[in-house]
Amino acid sequence: YKLECAKGExxxxxxxxxxxxxxxxxxFEFLTGGKHQEQFYSAVVSGEVDKLVAQLxxxxxxxxxxxxxxxxxxxxxxxxxxxxxxxxxNFGTETETQNGVSVxxxxxxxxxxxxxxxSTIVLAEGKVVKFYLESDKLTLEWLKDPGIAELCKARAExxxxxxxxxxxxxxxxxxxxxxRTQLTxxxxxxxxxxxxxxxxxxxxxxxxxxxxxxxEGESFTILLYYKVVCANDSTMAEVTFQFxxxxxxxxxxxxTGGS
Length: 259
Description:
The protein is α+β, with helices and mostly antiparallel strands. It is built from eight helices and ten strands. The strands form two sheets. Strands 1-10-9-8-7 form a five-stranded antiparallel sheet. It has a five-stranded antiparallel sheet with strand order 2-3-4-5-6. 30% of the residues are buried.
């Protein structure tokens, strides 16, 4: 059995963008936005991910994976160095109240020890709901962080274990929402039952290897391979992850021997 997101749905954004609301923002002063940028990037380069999470809106913080956010922050620190200041000639802040919510957008050039980047931060009621940093020095190499690999390995092993021990609901909850639009919960349960009937009781799952693909595009992918031994069969299982909104998403699995 093999299931993956349709090609048109496998696009993964590694920049962090929670568009909480569509707003038309009007003028505000530099100091207000500058304060938020300084607080945010000081937390980014601090090496303490909890300081960064504390600045996020609770609804946003609940959806991120801390190891992914920490790896991104480490990538900023390693490639750009410490936060220094903001450009006063290429920086602006705007604000608006919509539906009773105070929304502030601050964007411009942020100066670091080793270079600069274009930053956008949007806050609702003083908490970050969207951020984006673009810099020529910040590549996707940060997604190769060991912490991300360990996160994906743990999730892959849990998924495979649930799948091969008949815990269909738990396995179904772990896959990306796009996969859940392709396969209903009942169809997934039928798949799990069929695999378990043919393969027999699970005996062991052992991690084999990991590789990265699409490392320079928006669909950066981690592929994990596991040796699976069941009573009636054995195979090499493949589980893949892509990244969006600072979270790792299980977007395909393959029990046919991998690819």
